[in-house]
Each structure stands twice: as structure tokens, then as C-alpha cells.
Amino acid sequence: MKLSVYARQIGVTYKTAYRWWKAGRLDAYQLKTGTVIVRDPIPKNATGIALYAHVSSVDQKNDLERHMERLKDYAAAHGYHVTRIVSESGSGLNDRRPKFLKLLDFPDY
To answer: 3-state secondary structure string, 1-63?
Structure first.
């Protein structure tokens, strides 16, 4: 599959996937036309995973975005198929994490 399709499928940007290819982290090759082709890394019987990130305040939005990017990179590097991305902010002093609890109760969320 084309590198752009692969990037979309695993939930990363094309630029990230291209960097991985240049670094030799992907099982891929380049055609004479310049198109990068990635050999299908996702098994047909693979199930998806959800990524979850949490910060304690809205002021930490940049931290939340960086955390989620690290999770996406990790999942992609290990060949996980990401089906859901959930993030939220709120105090860590209590157990009120509605999106997380909903994700646990309803996996199709």
C-alpha cells in the first residue's frame, strides 16, 4: 500500500511515516516513480486498540497533544491498529474520568 494510505490507516501523519521509512523502521520500498510502497504490516485478523491520554488541567493541552503523539508513535512502531483515540483533562484527585469509564464500559465507543 502507498505510504500515505499506511499513515492514514495507523493514525499518523504522512511526514511521520516518511521519517520512519527514511530511518529504516518500515518494511517498504520505493518505486522508480518515487512512490513509497509499504508491505502490509497489519494482520487481517488483528483487532484494534484504543489510545487514552489524560492531563489534570486544561492549561496542559500541549502536554496532552504530545502525550497522544507519543502513544500513536508507540502503537505504530509495534504494529498495533488504532481504532479509537480518547483524551480528556480533569483533576487526578478523584476518579471522575467519564470518557475513560465509557471506553471501558462500551468498547465500541
So the answer is: CEHHHHHHHHCCCHHHHHHHHHCCCCCEEECCCCCEEECCCCCCCCCEEEEEEEECCHHHHHH
The residues that bridge with 52 in the sheet, in sequence order, are 86
Is 56 catalytic? The answer is: yes
In terms of Cβ atoms closer than 10 Å to its own Cβ (0-12, 13-18, 19+), residue 72 is: buried
Cβ atoms of 50 and 103 within 8 Å: the answer is yes
Find the catalytic residue in 56, 57, 89, 91: 56
Which stretch of 8-12, 27-31, 73-77, 97-101 has the lowest confidence by average pLDDT?
A: 97-101
Of 43, 28, 39, whose CA–CA distance to 19 is shortest?
Answer: 28
pTM: 0.53
Euclidean distance between CA atoms 11 and 24, whole angstroms: 19
How far is it, in rounded angstroms, from Cα 107 to Cα 84? 9
- Closest listed residue to residue 53, CA positions, set 107, 105, 103: 103
